[in-house]
Amino acid sequence: MGLARSTPRQLKLLPSESDLEEAYRRQGVRFIAGVDEVGRGPLAGPVVAAAVILASDSVFPRLTDSKQLTPARREFFDRQVRDQALAFAIQEVGVLEIESLGILSASLKAMALAVQSLVLKPELVLIDGPWGLQIQVQQQPIIKGDQRCLSIAAASVLAKVYRDRQMQAIHELYPHYNFASHKGYGTREHLEAIRRWGPCPVHRRTFRGVREWCR
Predict the structure, then answer these.
(1) What is the pTM of this model?
(2) What's the whole-number mean pLDDT along residues 71-90?
């Protein structure tokens, strides 16, 4: 999957603006989708992406990058965003595609699928990170977008909560890896479990820390 480079037509990004979404709305954009992914780093499980379109008057005090929130706050904001968003969509790319495509391309695919699954078509997509997506919509990648754009922060929360629940379900199938605790990341406990038990079907066999134990 190739990497797309896309700049929104007739839209001017102002990096100094404290509220990037409001800056775009002043340029006449109504429906802005924020998109983010979680799960690039783990040794197991899917990569998950969410896309969210918020109303222009949405207010979520202290909502930011999901990694900076406690689990309880993520659950709280997950409910708030689902209740108040104009539209949202969540998509995942599984282990086999991660191994086939590579984790970057798999992450970009998950984000593109999330955008394409929105029931309300966005006029502009704001993407967390430096890469564009293979979508037929005006788009703008934004470094640290989950800290600068409310819709991207909302997307990061939906994706994180969804993936954590997925890993809890996987834990029920393979409890000796304790996925419920580390969510598939390469903790000392997880690496020791892989060494002891070998990889299970949800492990990413091309990743260091797993591939050494594949037979």
Answers:
(1) 0.90
(2) 96
